[in-house]
Amino acid sequence: MDAAQAVVFIHGLGDAPGSWAHQIASLPDGFVGIAVNVPGLAPGGRAGEFSLGRAADHVIDEMDRLEIARAHLCGLSLGAMIAFRAAVDHPERVLTLTLAAGQVKPPRTLMAIQHAIMRVLPEKVVSTGGASKAQMLAVLDAVARVDFTGELPEVAAPTLVLCGSKDRPNLPAARRFAKGIRDAELVILDGAGHQSNTENPAAFSAALNAFLCEPS
Predict the structure, then answer these.
(1) pLDDT (0 to 100) of residue 3
(2) Are the C-beta atoms of 10 and 195 separated by less than 8 Å?
(3) How many angstroms separate the CA atoms of 35 and 158, rounded?
(4) What is the residue-wise DSSP string for the chain?
(5) Cα pseudo-dihedral 189, 193, 197, 198, rounded to 10
(6) What is the rounded CA–CA span in Å between residue 53 and residue 25?
C-alpha cells in the first residue's frame, strides 16, 4: 500500500468503523481509507482498563500490519483523542491530523452526567456500537482523566480541527485545539451536531479532502 496516501479513520464511542463509509468512498484519487476498530470497544470484548495510549499504540500496530509507514489520521470524538495521542506519541508515523469533536480537557460535570446516565440505561440501549455497557463505562472513566492542555504545542503534523455548529459541548474544545496546535485550521460544519461525519457527511468530506490535498 502507498503509505503516503493512507488515511486511517478512528471512530467514536458508540460508533463503529462503518460510520466512516461516506468519507472513505469520497476520498480524492490516490488516497485509500482504512477504518480501524478501537481496542476496548470491540463487540464481545471484555471490559478492562482502557487507556488512550494503548489505543494509539493499537492504531500504529494496525499500520504496521498493513505495512503503512506514515498515514493521515482522522478521528471523531474519542477517535479524535486517540488520534491526538498517536500524533504526540508517534510523530514520525503521522502525516496529517484531523480532529473532529474531540476534547482537550473534558469538563468534569459533563463526564459525570454522561457516566451516570450510561450506568442506569439498559444494556441494549447503550451498546449501539456493539460494545458492552461495561466497556463503554471503562472508556468514559479513562477519558474523564484526560488533559491535553500542555501537549498541544507538541503536535508537529499539519492539523485540521472540525466541529459541528450544533455541537455546543465541543465547540470550545475545538477552538482550544486550533489555538494551541501550531498553524491548525478550524472548520465549523454548518448544521451538524456531534457526529458530523454522519450528520453532514458531504461537508465533512469536503473539508477533509481539501485539507488532504493542500500542498505540503
Answers:
(1) 42
(2) no
(3) 20
(4) --GGGEEEEE--TT--GGGGHHHHHTPPTT-EEEEEPPTT-STTPPP----HHHHHHHHHHHHHHTT-SSEEEEEETHHHHHHHHHHHH-GGGEEEEEEES--SS--HHHHHHHHHHHHHS-HHHH-TTS--HHHHHHHHHHHTT---GGGGGG--S-EEEEEETT-TTTHHHHHHHHHHSTT-EEEEETT--S-HHHHSHHHHHHHHHHHHTS--
(5) -130
(6) 29
Distance CA 99, CA 116 (A): 27
Q: For residue range 119-157, what is the model confidence (pLDDT) as tens digits?
A: 666 656 555 556 677 777 778 888 888 999 999 999 999
Cell 464511542, located at residue: 13
Cell of 167: 455541537
Task: Please give the grid coordinates belonging to residue 208.
Answer: 477533509
Q: Residue for cell digits 471484555?
A: 46
Rounded Cα distance between 196 and 190, Å, is 9
- List per-block mean pLDDT (blocks of 10 residues) for the chain, which spans 216 residues: 77 89 97 89 59 93 96 96 98 98 85 65 59 76 90 98 95 97 97 95 98 88
